Amino acid sequence: MIPEVLSFRVVNDGYCDGSTIRLEWEVKNSSKLMLNGKDVTGKTSCNHRIQKTHTLKLTASNSFSKAEKVIELHPQIPARIADFRSLHSKVVYGESVTLTWRVNDTKRLVLVGNNEEFNVTGIESKSVTLFKNTQFKLIAFSGDESVFDEKSLTIKVLPKIEEYSVVEKRYFEGDKITFRWK
């Protein structure tokens, strides 16, 4: 009987460089099964880590003949955060700050800060009002969400000065002036 490779496929959708993909196959009339030179006899699937575009060849053989099936892998470019910033690294208590970013090859984009998570896919900025020092994290996911890029940004919040006054009523040029504030 002649060996046959009935099916050989990648299970995952949207894989990119660095992804681990799942390969599945079905063969019949085979006593030996090789995947790119590695013995996978007795198996019907395996995981494979992608590093770049390449070819996978599944070879089913027996003492009479052999059959081959080839898959060409073309991974997507992984997500990348090109820029993540704010015009201000310090703001006064209760003021708003606008965070901006530029991303490439991103399927999903998440902004995390103050124990909140925002889906910011498709937008390039977000304004937030701050009451305490906050570290923001921007996470850009590829089609395969196990592959992502992330960048952090910390905004410091300064206390709000409600009132200030000069301690001395009179002063002369060159005198030190003392201020008080609440």
Walkthrough of the structure:
This protein has strands spanning 4-10, 20-28, 32-35, 38-39, 45-49, 54-61, 66-73, 80-86, 90-92, 96-104, 108-113, 116-119, 125-129, 134-141, 148-158, 164-166, 179-181. With 182 residues, it is mainly β. A hairpin with a 4-residue loop joins strand 6 and strand 7. The protein is rod-shaped, with a radius of gyration of 30 Å. It starts with a strand and ends with a strand. The mean pLDDT is 90.
Topology at a glance:
Blueprint: E1 4-10, E2 20-28, E3 32-35, E4 38-39, E5 45-49, E6 54-61, E7 66-73, E8 80-86, E9 90-92, E10 96-104, E11 108-113, E12 116-119, E13 125-129, E14 134-141, E15 148-158, E16 164-166, E17 179-181
Parallel strand pairs: 9-15
Antiparallel strand pairs: 1-2, 2-5, 3-4, 3-6, 6-7, 8-10, 10-13, 11-12, 11-14, 14-15, 16-17
What would a concise description of this structure say?
This protein has 182 residues and is an all-beta fold.
Tell me, what's the shape? rod-shaped
Mean pLDDT: 90
User: How much helix is in the residues?
Assistant: under 10%
In what order do the strands lie side by side in the largest sheet? 9-15-14-11-12
Based on CA atoms alone, the radius of gyration comes out at: 30 Å
β-sheet strand percentage: over 45%
Name its key features.
182 residues; mainly beta; five-stranded mixed beta sheet; four-stranded antiparallel beta sheet
